[in-house]
């Protein structure tokens, strides 16, 4: 099939990436895949020591990252593919694979993201949360003369239709208003880690209205926050 659009979403954790996957899954022209590089990441890093369900993930997924990327690059029975990925799952994989995809970076204000993530991973590091890796990925895309598309989770929550319309335009596909809502509950495409991370999206029927965080920011996360905020400001420059 010619004219296939393969979208790689490169997200940090707790960035509405699952909601965005559910959104794209509503399109009749699109197949979605949930974190296909997770097994590779866990089997080639120390993250298997603290990620919930790591053994089951490694045992049930393809752990060869090159094989995963080759497979994703050649799927051809759907007009559009949406691959939800975490940027830190890339590790040291050959970046030339990026040429086969439209690459979208999804970010979120770290003052809101870090406390949410720390509820599951209590001692997060910069490598866990992806902000510097997003910057590195942008530099890789620029070096390859590939488009840089950066989206902020907050903007989508504030105006889903407007932001998704702009995102689809940047990707090169028409916006479909079915992307704005979905049925409550799990999806068959969910990874086996869904029980640890997806409670909120399983209880949703669309993008939830944006609500600023009100609880105090954990003091022990402040050094990491300072690092992340510098990257977040740089990421925002690509949205202006």
List keywords for this structure.
240 residues; alpha/beta; Rossmann fold; five-stranded parallel beta sheet; 12 helices; 42% helix; 12% strand; globular
CATH architecture: 3-Layer(aba) Sandwich
* Shape descriptor: globular
Main sheet properties: 5 strands, parallel
The helix count comes to: 12
Number of domains: 1
Give me the strand/helix succession: EHEHHHEEHHHEHHHHH
Q: How many β-strands, per DSSP?
A: 5
Give the fraction of residues assigned to helices.
40-55%
Mean pLDDT: 94
Gap from first CA to last CA = 35 Å
> Assembly type of the shown chains?
single chain
CATH superfamily caption: P-loop containing nucleotide triphosphate hydrolases
| CATH fold naming | Rossmann fold
Rounded to the nearest angstrom, the radius of gyration is 17 Å
Kindly estimate the percentage of residues that lie in beta strands according to DSSP. Answer: 5-15%
Describe the overall structure.
The protein has one domain (5-237): 3-Layer(aba) Sandwich (Rossmann fold). Helices cover 42% and strands 12% of the residues. It contains 12 helices and 5 strands. It has helices spanning 17-25, 38-43, 54-60, 65-74, 110-118, 126-129, 131-143, 153-158, 160-171, 194-197, 199-202, 222-237; strands at residues 5-11, 30-34, 80-86, 102-107, 149-152.
């Amino acid at each position: 099939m010619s004219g296939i659009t393969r979208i790689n979403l490169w997200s940090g954790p707790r960035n509405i990436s699952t909601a965005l996957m559910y959104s794209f899954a509503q399109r009749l022209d699109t197949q979605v895949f949930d974190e296909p590089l997770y097994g590779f990441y866990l089997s080639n890093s120390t993250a298997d020591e603290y990620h919930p369900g790591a053994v089951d993930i490694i045992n049930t997924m393809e752990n060869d990252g090159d094989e995963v990327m080759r497979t994703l690059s050649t799927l051809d029975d759907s007009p559009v593919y949406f691959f939800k990925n975490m940027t830190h799952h890339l590790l040291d994989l050959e970046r030339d694979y990026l040429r086969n995809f439209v690459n979208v970076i999804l970010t979120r204000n770290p003052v809101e993201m870090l406390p949410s993530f720390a509820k599951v991973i209590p001692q997060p590091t910069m490598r866990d949360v992806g902000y510097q890796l997003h910057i590195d990925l942008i530099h890789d895309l620029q070096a390859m003369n590939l488009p840089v598309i950066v989206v902020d989770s907050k903007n989508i929550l504030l105006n889903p239709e407007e932001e998704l319309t702009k995102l689809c335009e940047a990707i090169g596909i028409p916006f479909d208003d079915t992307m704005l809502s979905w049925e409550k509950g799990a999806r068959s495409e969910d990874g086996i880690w869904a029980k640890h991370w997806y409670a909120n999206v399983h209880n949703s029927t669309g993008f939830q209205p944006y609500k600023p965080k009100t609880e105090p920011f954990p003091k022990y996360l402040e050094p990491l926050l300072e690092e992340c905020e510098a990257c977040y400001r740089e990421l925002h420059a690509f949205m202006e």
